[in-house]
Design brief:
6 copies of one chain form a homohexamer. By secondary structure, chain A is an alpha/beta fold. The first copy, chain A, folds into 2 domains: about 30-200, serine acetyltransferase, domain 1; about 205-305, Hexapeptide repeat proteins (UDP N-Acetylglucosamine Acyltransferase, domain 1), CATH 2.160.10.10. Helices cover about 45% and strands about 10% of the residues of chain A. The first copy, chain A, has helices spanning about 5-15, 20-25, 40-55, 70-95, 95-100, 110-130, 130-145, 155-160, 160-180, 185-195; strands spanning about 200, 205, 210-215, 220, 225, 230-235, 235-240, 260, 265, 270-275, 280, 285, 290, 300. In chain A, helix 3 (about 40-55) packs across helix 10 (about 185-195). Chain A is globular, with a radius of gyration of 23 Å. Chain A starts with a helix and ends with a strand. Chains in contact: A-B, A-C, A-D, A-E, B-C, B-D, B-F, C-E, C-F, D-E, D-F, E-F.
């Protein structure tokens, strides 16, 4: 094997890989030349948001009350601009022209401008919800602290606990999900999943004072509904039991298929709760068990020993 | 404690740590001066491969059919050169001279040149298998999409789903494993393990249309054999039940000790399947259970409630 | 929505987010202007320590016995200086002045200088324990190698295995925990948790020749005590069963509430061992089970099939 | 001076610096939100162009004839995209709407789109001129080699000589100048000026086989005209002698006011040639002198000793 | 030559270079452990100051009147903190304890705290002078524009012209010089010298509406005094003619030895004006000449042709 | 102009630029695949050498006598390895096989190994000369300090003065020149030229206690010979007056054609000294003049006023 055979191999592999049938479903080129949302920029967005919500813990290390206003102003401005770019990328990415008949008669350039306008509007709406986002995350910090005797103070919760890192991302993603931003909410929660081992779908609905201890392996599915003051442990699954197929044998999308957990529910480690069932207020689910039927309020169920 | 005692402490710790008996098994210096495979370079290799296999989703963001050929050419060329360096490092790292009696009579420099030649040959063979690698990964994308009602389109699968990130790495590592490249396949799959929480040994054999939902905590052992159209959920273990020890009490390496899953098997979350058993075609294994015996084709087994 | 409304939104959100009641528990400003411990610097500290303990595997790639002394000298010196800065940050971060009545009469500047002195002293003590740290980690390498038939050599263990990455961090964090360094031990172990999926509290006590196979999802609580030659598999929890509340309904901190595992215990995947119970010498705990009572030495318990 | 006075000082200085009259001529905000051309991106453009023109000397270090086509394709594609962005920035920057009455009736968005179209067209024209650009630069390499007995080979000329670094930039900038791209040509030549000490205005006209020895301090003004085979030494000025003022006392822009050097002229170090004079074919101008009148073809003039 | 001789060479060179007599005047270790001012941080300081003075041209590219206040606030805050660190380094660097008898009785720690306080005070004074600094630089921009028929608009002056880059640095350095900050003013002006080829000593006094055309090779000595509306061309030297030696043959420091240029003076390229002479109001000095005597107001002198 | 014409333009320009006749003299591909010396690595080499020679001023900022030995050891080791790579690149770059008949009969691989061996030998010789290099540079620091009344202390000289930055590079390059290392000495001195405006050919011979004030525009040609205690000012040229051509009209290389300056010579700003003439001991050359004949010892010559 020498330089000549190498050149031949390279050329041949390039040829094979550039055959359209070889990449048809694996290739993305949007007609308006806007690239995909970028993992690197989304990470920057997460970092900015963490710094805005938890000043002094994340983001700029030298912060004080004199300059807090300047710093929030600059960070919010940058967050807004990064979000506009990413939301525009997300909107361009989805099969937008097909989805929205309203654009049918528009030129490509006009569609591109309209997408830009929509991105600006949604980014602004996201910014406007940050104070409420911070308020709710503050309740999660309280819940994490109260739920762990090992925690020394709020500072340890905010700077170390995976649940807070993940909920900051999930709650941001959930706002974007509510604003019909495509793709980005899922990219964000998968970034949180990789960082913390906690996999929360951005479509899930989660109340205040929520916490997850340790967290690795937790899965919370798209149509889950979680009340206030709920606590999960590591490895808990809130999943679908099965899902109906359409006539072509493909899963039907969008059906409510994950559990409802009412207020003050506790689920211990590695329990799996599956299907559109309801776990009643204050119920306790023991570890390592498999639950596929409703559990009444206040009830406790555990593994048969 | 002052500057003088600090200097003394530093000097003394340096002395202790440079005593050969303190580092004898923890220290790597290959005689030919080639450094170890580098995590940083391997990450670059993963990034390049993802960009080649999923153009526009990973790698260069500005891609179009005009320039696709140029870009694949450049990326393959760089991938080849990085691989040569890393494979050379991996080969130098293993106890090569001991292993291969053929080199016994060679000078150090000649061994070094021969290792280089072997690295070039294996890197070229890896490159030649990329079109087939892409073809199989395309089936995994289809499986992930069909298996998840929450998935909106292939694009979401390719850009977000941990199973695709992990399988890209595992399938690359498995090719290198087949080419007898030391160490690198394991380094690659542990990098994927850290990123996705899915731990697949590069020696495992996995068919087409394979998918894992969520994925955190999945373990697939070295001698596992998985057919086509198999689906796993988070937390599933395909492990060894026990392993025989040799006369000195050390585990005997290389014995088939992990399960065989035939086509169309489904395994639900946190199930553990252990030992060289066979799960027959179309069998369904329920969550949170512990399976150590064969399961017949088409059978379903679940946790006792 | 146009530039004017955007400006208004930004200004308004800045106003809301700078209201002290909105950030009171989420904001950190230490009175002496020392920033928090930094994740980036702690990562550098981890990298340096790995290079010092496993020369040639981590850290500088071009290492040889001639220059080993120079390189350890430089790396220890840098490690010391980074540690002083981080420990100082950690000490400043805790409510130091409240905690230590001895400082009550001191001026702010004097407290700041005293904290610096304490940081220097603790960093030096940490450095002094590195030779012992290396000795114990060498036993962990042996345990990981003996416990896994898939492992080819020590080199693979050291450069790939998550358990070694995690134990290096945990054992460093445990030393700092013993030196009463606030916050940093938990930050370190959560960094390891994110990298490896293994969550070990720095307060846990762990003997020699310890190993964890695969590791994802393992949780080892603050007051756990683990003997020598213990082996865990992925998903194992050593947790608290419940914790007493004080009069205000908050968990009482600092009570021994996690299990004791004596020498030569094995715990299989996804088992949960909860509460201040004792698993006797040589006991074997099967997978996916929930253990809340003592297990006698030599006993084996498994899931009811 | 304490924290309170510092806060006051900061606030007051911010107030003063945000008064519009304090920054009116020093501040740039284009109405369409396009930022200025970026020095960082222009440096990337220079680096790409050098790599395209002198393959193997600049740009990618691992180049060979097999992959040259791929690499040029990728680099040209990137160069094109970077240029479009920068030219768009340059066009947006100039007082475009005022300058071009044709846009008077357009909306802001339409102007923005039209500017984009113009930028794409000019970037493409620039790309189309690269082969000719390379041809001319090759003559400059020959001239530099023939003009310096210290030069060992063309490689030394290409990789070391400031004149080649500067001429690559100047000749690029001159093409952009000819395409009526605002600001960028001057930014490019000032970047070359900073790197090499040679200050060539992009409006100057320079023939083939041009060289400058050493180069520091050379100035070549906007309306200079230089023939073929001309050689300058360090410190030479081709400047204006004086310039007429308009009725308001401001210099009148755009008048031919710099010298014409015909073919085969040589000018020695630190000579100053000023005003719209002609230095005839083959004339030689000695060092450290001040020339303000025509010099006949073939004549030599030197400092009076 | 082999590994053994290399190890010996390295060891021997280390030995020679660590002999104190070999580095006694070339080595810097301040007793309080504060490092030297850092070129990298000073560059950051220059970049911040340019962005504050010329918003939109330097620094943040996305700036608008809504966020200008936030951005200046953040940038000034960062500038202040970087300056405190560098001034502290500069003060620690000088032989402070020797210079200032007032510290004689202080402990090392107290001196260190006092230096910190002085650094904070001087940094704040510097910040307070920024509005005036901007006002004067605005006059320099006008002068550069009026002095060059090739300049299209203020924007080109601000973003391209070396004279503005250099004067921004010089005028900052001159303020620090006036605040008795050691070393940093000279480091700053040498950084400008390297970037622009213009060498202005921070001690020089320069009026408003000052400009230098092209600039390479200009030297303006420490005790030069320049009035308003003065214009220089490239290569001009304002130097010392000679300097008296003290009894030991060393030059006596601090004597006024450079020229005085009154208002409205013009000096053409490569002229050298040497010694404490006065060039009277409105005088014109021709190029390439050597001037060592006073020139009367309104007079023109040129090279003998 | 649209996407189709752009694709066509790109393809066509790639075609033109890949025609071998278009790049024949502008393209570098060494047959053994070793890339060219790298500007980036050479800059790292300069930075390392400055840190080794002037500890505490350049390189690591936290240095003290305890750790100086460790730090020099590590830095020298790294300097050696970087140099080996660059010298190997330089040797591979020159037309080595043509130049050295001795290699005629060797295989490519053997030549490559032999070049490596030569590179290692020369790098080691360079390292061995560092103590002498430092000794001579210390004399240059003294000369710069004594020659400038504005200099406050050695520290200012070492950390700010361009002459010291340039002489560190020149003296390194001169050693490599003496070791017959191709290309790199010229690359190094052109890097210094760009940084300082001082252009010294690495072949020039320069004695101790040498200094250049300000420096911009100084040119010192390849065959110049400079004694001890010589001082130059900015803009001085030590150049060739003319150079003989060979039969083909090309300049004959390698002839002594630059001036000799004996001990204690002073040359003022912008003077040009040309040809193989001798400026005798203690002579003084005035500014802005053109000298082409010998000047006797002790003589002073100046511009005719």
């Amino acid at each position: 094997m020498n330089a000549r055979t190498l050149a031949k191999t390279l050329t041949q592999v390039v040829d094979e890989l550039t055959r359209p049938e070889s990449y048809k479903d694996l290739y993305h080129e949007h007609s308006n030349g806007v690239p995909l949302p970028s993992g690197e920029v989304l990470q920057k967005i997460i970092d900015l948001a963490r710094g805005i919500i938890f000043p002094g813990y994340y983001g700029r290390s030298c912060i004080n009350t004199t300059t807090l206003e300047y710093q929030l102003g600059v960070d919010l401005d940058q967050l807004y601009h990064l979000l506009v770019g990413q939301i525009q990328a997300g909107l361009s990415f989805s099969n937008f022209e097909e989805d929205m008949a309203v654009f049918a008669a528009y030129s490509k350039r006009t569609v591109c401008m309209e997408i830009r306008r929509m991105a600006e509007e949604r980014a602004e709406r996201f910014i406007a919800q940050l104070p409420e986002l911070r308020r709710v995350l503050a309740t999660d910090v309280v819940a994490a602290f109260n739920g762990d005797p090992a925690a020394k103070n709020y500072a340890e919760i905010i700077s170390c606990y995976p649940v807070i890192k993940e909920l900051t991302i999930y709650r941001m993603a959930h706002i974007l999900w509510g604003l019909d931003v495509p793709l980005i909410p899922r990219m964000l929660t998968e970034m949180g999943h990789s960082e913390t081992g906690i996999d929360i779908h951005p479509g899930a609905t989660i109340g205040e004072y929520f916490t997850i201890d340790h967290g690795t392996g937790v899965v919370i599915g798209e149509t889950s509904v979680i009340g206030n003051n709920v606590k999960l442990y590591q490895g808990v699954t809130l999943g679908a039991k099965s899902f109906p197929l359409d006539e072509e044998g493909n899963p039907i999308k969008g059906i409510a298929r994950h559990p409802i957990l009412e207020d003050h529910v506790i689920v211990y480690s590695n329990a799996s709760i599956l299907g559109r069932i309801t776990i009643g207020r204050g119920a306790v689910i023991g570890g390592n068990i498999w639950v596929t039927h409703d559990v009444a309020a206040g009830e406790s169920i555990t593994q048969k020993a």
